């Protein structure tokens, strides 16, 4: 019997045995809630800092159940807040330091994967972002110029229409940007590898072990309790269920379709793109694609409405309208491939903070660390955030630049129904901005309004 698997990625793992459950009383130096990438990278970083420490990861379902086992597999150096905004808050040197850490992080992940890189389908093929209108082109040029002016490490490279086509025949591209600092990965294999390696290092990973906070340093579950010197919460979009984090992050849906493997002829018509290339275009409502080595295209997008009260499980099933919408967008982008068959779909939620900054927060009096809020850019960033969380939990190797940027005081989301209204109006304005392509004045007015509503 296979374990429940809410994504093609998790199904492909074919796991059929649960890890142990929390059963009785347990003591640990560091207890981590959430068996996704954040929790597992944090656990590894704790052991790097303090070899021999006792670490337990408690996962409510199975490892990778959340966004970590469902995502689009872009391991990137993207940050959810624009570089201009980061520079206004932390100075150009703050933006440069952050970008450099994000770039180095990717090299470090690759080095850490070592011989396992092929097993987790790690391909360092970069990302191509197509401009499919003059307005999108102007925006991409402005973004690259900003990266250059700030002196950011490895900025995007502008491509003309032929340059885009040479990488991937995206229909209607008038130009684009190539972002070299991006790899694609099989996310469920990555998260499973981290769990197995953690167990080999002496860490304990428990599944079907949902817990909630007790007194400081205590976690309570149905099967038992854990007493730890430090507790790390790494529950991302699920955090609203814990009263302490209730309005820290809004869960926003992101949903994916997977195609059947493209034929050799289809791939040729698309210009024989490199295996593992990731792609997108310059629209406002985020879309993202990955061309897997097996010929499948994994293609996702946002836009499904936010659920009142920060619910999450609704996003797992992709409704017929969303599935058709994603299929139509993909067919439009890769028109030259001809008909593309869709074989699977699934979804999940990303955790978005009120100002779109990810957070790593430490409350020494409560002996608690909170990590999360990647707003859809967490596949690689979870490692950096996990290192900072581990530094707080162990008291060693704190990265001061990261600590300042990710340690901003939390601005809470509004209570319901304002939160429901704000997020959904923001989504509507994002769509409207895209629909107003070719009408720059109206588009700018909508963008200003959207920025005010979404805090972005
Ligand atoms: C559809 C989709 C596509 C995405 N695509 C990309 C992409 O291409 N690139 C990118 O960089 N990012 C992407 N992201 C975002 C990225 O996947 C996340 O930022 C990242 O995986 C977050 O990892 P995490 O460990 O913090 O959270 P999660 O993976 O969500 O892990 C949290 C875990 O906590 C567990 N949990 C919750 N409550 C409890 C409790 N009380 N007790 C015990 N356990 C609990 C959950 O079961 C879950 O497994 C995408 C996200 C989605 C949903």
Indicate the topology.
Blueprint: H1 8-13, E1 24-33, H2 37-49, E2 55-58, E3 74-76, H3 83-113, E4 127-131, H4 134-150, E5 157-160, H5 161-167, E6 175-179, E7 182-184, H6 187-200, E8 204-206, E9 211-213, E10 218-221, E11 224-233, E12 250-259, H7 264-269, E13 278-281, E14 287-291, E15 297-302, H8 320-333, E16 342-352, E17 359-363, E18 368-372, H9 378-394, H10 400-406, H11 418-435, H12 440-454
Parallel strand pairs: 1-2, 1-11, 2-8, 4-13, 11-18
Antiparallel strand pairs: 3-7, 4-6, 5-6, 9-10, 10-11, 12-15, 12-16, 13-14, 14-15, 17-18
Helix pairs in contact: 2-6, 2-9, 3-4, 3-9, 11-12
Bound molecules: flavin-adenine dinucleotide.
The site of flavin-adenine dinucleotide has 44 residues, from helix 2, strand 3, strand 9, strand 12 and strand 16.
Structure commentary:
- The chain has three domains: 8-71 and 187-249 and 355-406, FAD/NAD(P)-binding domain, CATH 3.50.50.60; 123-183 and 250-352, 2-Layer Sandwich (D-Amino Acid Oxidase, Chain A, domain 2); 418-454.
- Helix 3 packs across helix 4 (134-150), helix 3 packs across helix 9 and helix 11 runs antiparallel to helix 12 (440-454).
- It is an alpha/beta fold and 456 residues long.
- The chain has twelve helices and 18 strands.
- The longest helix is centred in the N-terminal third of the chain and has 31 residues, at 83-113.
- The strands form three sheets. Strands 1, 2, 8, 9, 10, 11, 17 and 18 form an eight-stranded mixed β-sheet that branches.
- The mean pLDDT is 95.
- The site of flavin-adenine dinucleotide (FAD) has 44 residues, from helix 2, strand 3, strand 9, strand 12 and strand 16.
